[in-house]
Amino acid sequence: MEAYLKYHNPIIRGFYPDPSVCEANGRYYMVCSSFHFYPGVPLFESEDLVNWKQIGHCLTRRSQVMLDRIGSSGGVFAPCIRYYKGRFYMVTTNTSTEQNFYIWTDDIYGEWSDPVIVEQDGIDPSLYFEDDRCYFMSNGTDAEGVGGIVQCEIEIASGKKLSDSRTIWKGTGGRYLEGPHLYRFGEYYYLLAAEGGTEFGHMVTYARGKHIFGPFESYKNNPVLTNRNLGGYLIQGVGHGDIVKAQDGSYWLIHLGFRQISKWSPFHHLGREVYISPVRFDKEGWFEAGTHGTTTEIVELFHVKSRQKRRNNESFSNTVQSLDWCYLRHPVMENYTMTKDELLLTGTSISLNDIDTPTFIGLRQKDFCLYLTCSIEIDGGEAGISFFMDENHHYDFAIRNEDDGFHAITRLCIGNLKTITEDHYLGKAPEMKAVIDSDSQQYRFFIQSEDKKIPMGTGLTRYLSSEVATGFTGVIIGLYAVGAQSGNHAKFHDFQCEYFPE
Known about the structure:
Elements: E1 5-8, E2 20-24, E3 27-31, E4 37-38, E5 40-46, E6 52-59, E7 76-84, E8 87-94, E9 99-105, E10 116-118, E11 123-130, E12 133-141, E13 147-154, E14 166-169, E15 178-185, E16 188-195, E17 203-209, E18 217-218, E19 235-245, E20 251-259, E21 273-281, E22 287-289, E23 298-301, E24 313-315, H1 321-324, E25 326-328, E26 336-338, E27 342-346, E28 359-364, E29 369-378, E30 382-390, E31 393-402, E32 405-414, E33 417-427, E34 431-438, E35 442-449, E36 452-460, H2 466-469, E37 476-482, E38 489-500
Antiparallel strand pairs: 1-23, 2-3, 3-5, 4-25, 5-6, 7-8, 8-9, 9-10, 11-12, 12-13, 13-14, 15-16, 16-17, 17-18, 19-20, 20-21, 21-22, 24-38, 25-28, 26-27, 27-38, 28-37, 29-34, 29-38, 30-31, 30-37, 31-32, 32-33, 34-35, 35-36
């Protein structure tokens, strides 16, 4: 008898929240939220539901999404991906324009269409296809003013509503009913949702019914999955998921969660990540999920025979600019030139504190413990490395040009407090080698000078957490340039970021 193999959650690390998944042609495809970062809606592919490779983004053109001067955690929320008769659809919300829309493609590796707007309110939209008909749902308010999970039939070619919007389920009483998805397994329609807020009280709930518009009966043991009462446990905030059937016939819930910085310290700064939990149906057609209704670090999968692969080192040479890296809002691409050896940035007058588009390119921080090195050269202005949560919460380690020469600085920005905590005079040399290491509790900054490291202070991770900064994102490791005058240049080379298990 074959044994189950053990795999580790999260299956995608770092700020990749609100996962949605579908199966097509023997492979699985996943999308995640991107908010005010660009390109929008990261797109992944997998053969086994555990090992995922990013293959693109869904929103890659300005005509598809408006992100101009959108504040942190605005923009693109909670996408859903579906496949029907040879075509992929991705439906989502731009909360800043208050529009639900979908795009489509016949080539998962190619470009997606321009948006098709659906005139229904709410957020977290989802699509369900059956018998050449398409149903659109979101959490919102119906024509009678009743709030809950709202559904209508649409014409998929145009987005035109073919029926009134009707509230079909009000949830189980938890706050912030969201993230609905509809499935048909056997004789029942199953309506999956999230409640409790995407925080420590997050949970997955569901109901079922025999008709597509209900009525729906709630599962008596709701929530079907939550870690809300697990004190002293790293994985928290479990919720907002999507069910997928594996090729061996088993069912799995792909969902979000986050890792707090220690068992007894309720802060998280890596963002909401992607987890997998088993789904099992009983004889009456109800299902349970997880391990006794919770998400665990170790999950056993029968259908996966391959080793779980994780890239623990990131550099210019082993990352792809259009896949791994992201920008704040719509970038001016002429300000960025990346090769396998170095990155050249052209600074502007826009700073990281502005709700605008600074010269900034970043990687999502994947784990607590890292060791990062990078050499930075400038011809003016300021350039450096930012551990960036939002415009009011970021730690910057930079070199900048002042009247008496070049200085290395450490700047901590925590809400209204924005202060330079360390300043080291470099003289006339316009270059420094930055060294940064971190664990779950703090970042430590150093200048590498010949055979010694000069300490440049620390920053506590908790002040970059969602519990302090609020919002729905996670820390981005950003390389940036700001010009005292527009046109100052910065060169980054020998960039290496290595992750270690804590």
